[in-house]
Design a protein that fits this description.
globular, 5-stranded parallel β-sheet, alpha/beta, 210 residues, 5 strands, Rossmann fold, Arc Repressor Mutant, subunit A, 2 domains
Length: 210
């Protein structure tokens, strides 16, 4: 039996995922968590086989949770299941240790296949994402400016481009306003830009925002 824990702050999503897995004799939802801290607490107390992890949750976001899981439970496979398109976060999350990446628009069968594959030691990515990874590995390809950003800087860039204020970003990432302002300054310097409008235009052009 593959014991799964779901981390998502939306009750309807958790219920829907449990229903999808209810008909499979080899998969069971052993526990659910509504935020990152709750997930970590449960994983420290109980053994699980696969984690389904949302990216956007209150308190610790999915990227921070993933990095902590890789420290504490490096062999525990984590599938990112999110509303964010692959172009936005998939490569960074796979580099951070995720075993798979699915959007919430994926078919139920795809989710079941992903769980079984990562449980057996594999990685689960779409064909489009596999092509993107191959392209990223090409040494002759010029890297886009946002590749120079740290994971946190990249998160802040995406939130700025989504129209969030510094205060809203600080709240979403559990950071101080001063810290977010510092990240914004670094982003502008690295991207060689001068305003939020330029950052937003770039993010839209490069499909970094929905």
């Amino acid at each position: 039996m593959i014991n799964v824990i779901i981390a998502d702050d939306h009750p309807i999503v958790r219920a829907g995922l449990k229903q999808i897995m209810a008909d499979d004799i080899d998969i069971t939802v052993k526990a659910v968590a509504d935020n990152g801290a709750h997930l970590l607490k449960q994983i420290r107390a109980t053994d699980f086989d696969v984690v389904l992890l949302d990216l956007t949750m209150p308190g610790m976001d999915g990227l921070d949770v993933l990095k902590q899981l890789k420290v504490e439970k490096p062999k525990l496979p984590v599938i990112i299941l999110t509303i964010h398109p692959e172009a936005q976060y998939a490569l960074r999350l796979l580099k951070a240790g995720a075993a798979g990446y699915l959007t919430k628009e994926s078919a139920p069968d795809e989710l079941i296949n992903a769980i079984r594959k990562v449980y057996n030691g594999g990685k689960y990515i779409s064909t489009a994402l596999a092509e993107r990874i191959a392209f990223a590995l090409d040494a002759d390809v010029e890297r886009p400016p946002h590749d120079s950003l740290s994971d946190r800087e990249y998160q802040v860039l995406c939130l700025i481009a989504s129209g969030k204020t510094v205060s809203e970003i600080a709240e979403a990432l559990n950071l101080s306003v001063k810290t977010v302002s510092t990240y914004r300054t670094r982003i502008l310097e690295k991207m060689q830009m001068k305003s939020n409008a330029e950052l937003t235009h770039y993010a839209i052009q490069n499909q970094l925002v929905d």
